[in-house]
Amino acid sequence: MNIIAWIILGLLAGAIAKAIVPGHQGGSWLATLVLGVVGAFIGGTLHNLLQNGSLQLTAPGLSIGGVFIAVFGAIIAIFVYSALARRSA
Hey, which of 6, 10, 41, 88 has its CA 20 to 30 A from 33? Predict the structure, then answer.
């Protein structure tokens, strides 16, 4: 997947995940982009693990299903980050 598709998928998944999860996540558009890309890798890896039974670091493509997988991974990333932030505070 090329860099433009990564940026689009990251921004879209990060923005949707921030809208779904209650509370204030904060951050700029760059934080949303990073959240979406990290979420795409988390979701893609979990999807690959459930579908193929192998643990490989992958990301979904830019499609409707790929956006759903990336949003799911971004929601997981938000919860993990907020748990770690609460623990250190």
Answer: 88
State the residue range of the domain holding 19.
3-88
- pLDDT 10s digits, 52-87: 888 887 777 778 888 888 899 999 988 888 888 888
Contacts made by residues 14-20, CB under 8 angstroms, sequence distance 24+: 14/39, 14/74, 16/67, 16/71, 16/74, 17/71, 17/74, 17/75, 17/77, 17/78, 18/78, 20/71, 20/75
Number of domains present in the structure of the chain: 1
- The answer, as to whether pTM is greater than 0.85, is no
